[in-house]
Fold this sequence. Notes:
Elements: E1 2-6, E2 10-14, H1 16-23, H2 25-28, H3 50-67, H4 73-82, H5 104-114, H6 116-122, H7 127-138, H8 144-154, H9 159-172, H10 181-186, E3 188-191, E4 194-198, H11 202-220, H12 223-239, H13 242-246, H14 248-251, H15 256-265, H16 270-277, E5 283-288, H17 291-302, E6 310-317, E7 325-328, E8 331-334, H18 335-338, H19 340-343, E9 348-355, H20 360-368
Parallel strand pairs: 4-7
Antiparallel strand pairs: 1-2, 3-4, 5-9, 6-9, 7-8
Amino acid sequence: xxxxxxxxxxxxxxxxxxxxxxxxxxxxxxxxxKQLGVAYLVFPSAxxxxxxxxxxxxxxxxxxxxxxxxxxxxxxxLAGLLHDIGHPPFSHxxxxxxxxxxxxxxxxxxxxKETEIYEILRKEFSHEDIESLIRITLGRPKDKExxxxxxxxxxxxxxxxMDYLRRDxxxxxxxxxxxxxxxxxxxxxxxxxxxxxxxxxLRALENFLISRYFMYIQVYFHKSVRILSIHLVEFIKKLLxxxxxxxxxxxxxxxxxxxxxxxxxxxxxxxxxLRIFGRQHFKNLLSTENYEVYKExxxxxxxxxxxxxxxxxxxxxxxxSGNIYIKTEKxxxxxxxxxxxxxxxxxxxxxxxxxxxxxxxxxxxxxxH
Length: 369
């Protein structure tokens, strides 16, 4: 066993097999993939990476699996450890650039199958077991048994979400994402082939969902984080071609450091550099939940300014899908049937318009008349 010191969970212990995976180049690459993309330009201490998040997911997965007394603890720990190994540079920020509408889950499967990770796993697991491991870690189960196991990691209140909320809050220096995760874990149950929360854990579940809501509003959808991410994607589209990401050996060499080095060294990217790292990003002119107001303002601005000087951002997020179940003395109930607080969680819808700083005053004046 080897121990990794973690600010959230103390020491995280890995066995020999897990350590071999962590020491592999595909996994070590995660040290250079920021968990929150360019959010550190807004929240200075948000320097954490997919590497420590993956260790954290393993840790919570282990806690959940042991609490539920599952025999597949070894497999589940590996699924938690590997769940993010296919992330592109800057994590979700640049996932839109993956070729052929692929997701980081698709690349996770490829990295596991097409690199040394597969050979490491093959020494202890059959090919069929590895296929099952991949389905569980990606949330693509083939049967009810795999679905139950997968939910421990990828579910509505699975280990992935539990860790990233707590870790992101910790490193962003905000309190929104903290919740009573130990209480939530200890009131999790298996019931009728699904993962549910005991009625005694309803308040912990409310705490979790509200924390997630505020993290999206205050951090993930922060107005400056969004425009910096837009500028970053625009730059990477100039830098990379889809085939650069489609080849796994090439994909594994591309991380945040590679991207940043290119924007710093090439003069043709000076404008992108200044927008992202020179604090010259477009300024937020409008932020609203009203789509009609957004649409009318967008049309007005496009009628008066070149579209190159404008950026439009539409974000939507469903934070509660209605599929979390609570175990009561009378059987299962959906969480929103028992909690007015959870029932009140509506999808987040935000519409924003950003403008080049050179036309800021003119744009403001236009909207005032």
